[in-house]
Amino acid sequence: MAADMTITIITPEHTVLKNVPADAVVVPVVDGSMGILKNHAPMVANLRIGVLRYKDGGGAFKRVAVTGGFVEVSDNKITVLADAAEEAESIDVMRAREAKRRAEARLRDRKASIDRTRAEAALRRAIARLRAAGVLEDEK
């Protein structure tokens, strides 16, 4: 059965997905995760750093790491305006692991000169990229 719902993901740099058919979408929102199915009520929500999943026509969930922004649902069209987004297959796993390692090292360092908020955000981004790539287990 063909999907009657589509997803588009746009970042300031490029369009990651454009009108891709989707049977179901799960987005990381500020207060958890939200599932979206066909005929969902219109809405807008804030995204958090995490993994967006969408089920394509083949029945498999595909993953996209997102780093904040907004999601809008209207007339079976899901539009994600993300600060940054990266499809699982284009994630450089070694680079993401290194970013995670650096962020963890910065957070272990107790010096007052580090920006903890920035280091924590860098760690969350690296973990989201690794989860999207399938290297780390998803949150339960």
TrEMBL record:
<keyword id="KW-1003">Cell membrane</keyword>
<comment type="function">
    <text>Produces ATP from ADP in the presence of a proton gradient across the membrane.</text>
</comment>
<dbReference type="InterPro" id="IPR001469">
    <property type="entry name" value="ATP_synth_F1_dsu/esu"/>
</dbReference>
<dbReference type="Pfam" id="PF00401">
    <property type="entry name" value="ATP-synt_DE"/>
</dbReference>
<comment type="similarity">
    <text>Belongs to the ATPase epsilon chain family.</text>
</comment>
<keyword id="KW-0375">Hydrogen ion transport</keyword>
<comment type="subunit">
    <text>F-type ATPases have 2 components, CF(1) - the catalytic core - and CF(0) - the membrane proton channel. CF(1) has five subunits: alpha(3), beta(3), gamma(1), delta(1), epsilon(1). CF(0) has three main subunits: a, b and c.</text>
</comment>
<feature type="domain" description="ATP synthase epsilon subunit C-terminal">
    <location>
        <begin position="89"/>
        <end position="134"/>
    </location>
</feature>
<keyword id="KW-0813">Transport</keyword>
<keyword id="KW-0406">Ion transport</keyword>
<keyword id="KW-0139">CF(1)</keyword>
<dbReference type="InterPro" id="IPR036771">
    <property type="entry name" value="ATPsynth_dsu/esu_N"/>
</dbReference>
<dbReference type="Pfam" id="PF02823">
    <property type="entry name" value="ATP-synt_DE_N"/>
</dbReference>
<dbReference type="InterPro" id="IPR036794">
    <property type="entry name" value="ATP_F1_dsu/esu_C_sf"/>
</dbReference>
<dbReference type="InterPro" id="IPR020547">
    <property type="entry name" value="ATP_synth_F1_esu_C"/>
</dbReference>
<protein>
    <recommendedName>
        <fullName>ATP synthase epsilon chain</fullName>
    </recommendedName>
</protein>
<feature type="domain" description="ATP synthase F1 complex delta/epsilon subunit N-terminal">
    <location>
        <begin position="5"/>
        <end position="85"/>
    </location>
</feature>
<dbReference type="InterPro" id="IPR020546">
    <property type="entry name" value="ATP_synth_F1_dsu/esu_N"/>
</dbReference>
<keyword id="KW-0472">Membrane</keyword>
<keyword id="KW-0066">ATP synthesis</keyword>
